[in-house]
Amino acid sequence: MTVPEIEAKDVPDDGYLLDVREQEEWVAGHAPQAVHIPMGELQARVEEVPAGQAVYVVCRVGGRSAHAAAWLNHVGREAVNIDGGMYAWEAAKRPMVSETGQPPFVA
User: Fold this and answer.
1) pLDDT grade for 6, boundaries at 50, 70 and 90
2) Of 21, 27, 99, which is closest to residue 61 (Cα–Cα)?
3) Which CATH number, 3.30.1850.10, 3.40.250.10, 2.40.160.20, 3.90.1150.10, labels domain 5-91?
4) Which of 7, 37, 58, 72 shows its CA 20 to 30 Å from the CA of 45?
């Protein structure tokens, strides 16, 4: 199955951004508008992911998010993988925040 992909620079500012990384990765740096559901919790929390609109899925480099997007599409969501993950997000100079008191970075 092919998963739709988008470049980080092309993700709409008002798009629903789902970050499936682990907690320590999230804390180090994430997009301010992102919703955090670690990949391991996604099946149990799928009802939190909106239906009927595009969901842009991100992880560190794009592998986990591609799997998550494929599964979300399989269960009826409209998921798009962000090619290159948070590394591409950071390289595109998209906004990032951290919860560590330090400058955000991709962990």
Assistant:
1) very high
2) 21
3) 3.40.250.10
4) 7
Under 8 Å between Cβ of 37 and 18: yes
Interacting residues of 84 by C-beta distance below 8 A, sequence separation 6+? 7, 8, 61, 62, 91
Which one of 11, 18, 34, 59 is the catalytic residue? 59
Structure tokens at 61: 């480099």
| Active-site annotation holds for 59 | yes
Say if residue 6 is exposed, middle or buried (CB neighbours under 10 Å; 0-12, 13-18, 19+).
Answer: middle
pTM above 0.70, yes or no: yes
Indicate if the pLDDT at residue 107 is higher than 90: no
